Structures are given as structure tokens and as C-alpha cells.
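Re-run with default settings, no changes from the original entry. Doing this only to confirm the output is reproducible before filing.
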Amino acid sequence: MLDASTVFAPGEAFDAPLTDEVLRSVEAELGRQLPAAYVGLARQHNGGWLAHAAHPAPHPTTWADDHVRVVSLAAIGRDRGFSLCGAGGSAFWVEEWGYPDIGVYIADCPSAGHDMIALDYRSRGEPVVVHVDQEWNYRITVLAPDFETFIRQLVDASDYDRYERRTDPDR
């Protein structure tokens, strides 16, 4: 089980504590069952700023050659802006920004909407975690085979000794 005290930076959660009623309602609206590890984490601390804000990437992204930055995790709810069903939630990224409708957008990056982290439900079973890069024609990069692995693989951004914003995927 993930421990919210090691996942989130100190501070308040993005939304009210997760209840069974809210979970059922959000999953119904999204049309998806959320991973148990995500639900378990939200029951402890419902969304917030991440303590470790970088994740290794298997190939270059617009962010860097070897990683992506991840700032926060969306709450499971609808009351706050960055809740899955809130004003800036998963549907917003698909409807307003044209992100591909592959699942649920769960985390943001420091690019002001130019890349996002999503649960990709296109295959059977538990969704994989992907980075979707709007600047490179919504290129999808698999980061982890499941949500729990994704969270466990987050590292401190200082583990990467440089900021290398990429502009050309073939460079």
C-alpha cells in the first residue's frame, strides 16, 4: 500500500476526503474503474502536490532526454478545480485542449498544459500510465505498467542534474 505521507509534499489535499459515494459517482461519470492504488492513496490524502516531481522516461520528451516532470496528482472528486471531474479535470483536457480520449488524465506537468500524465485504458486490464505530449502531436509514451509502479518510480527532480527542454523529437 502506498503511504500518502511519502507521496505528497506537506500541505492540504486538493479535495475533500474520498467517500464510497463520491468514488462511485466519479467512476460512473468517467466510465472507468480507477486503480485500487489510486483509490487507496486518495482515501489517505485526496490529491495534492507531489513530494517527488520527476519520473524516468524511456525516450526523449519535450521536457528532457530521460525524464518528465510531474507536479501534482488530481483528486478523486469534483468539488475543486483539479479534481478528476472538476472544472480542470480529465474531461477538460480532452474537450478544451484536444488531448486524445484514451482514459483519465490524472497528473499535470509544469508546462501549463502542454503535457499531461494519464491512465491509458486502451488495453485490457489495469491501465498503464502514460505521458501525453501536446507539443509533439500528442505523442504517447508509456511510463509505467500501472499506477502504483508509477508512484513508486517518482524521484526528486534534483536527481536529474539538468533541465533540457526539447524542441525536436528526432534530435
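The first strand starts at residue 48 and ends at 49. The chain has five helices and eight strands.
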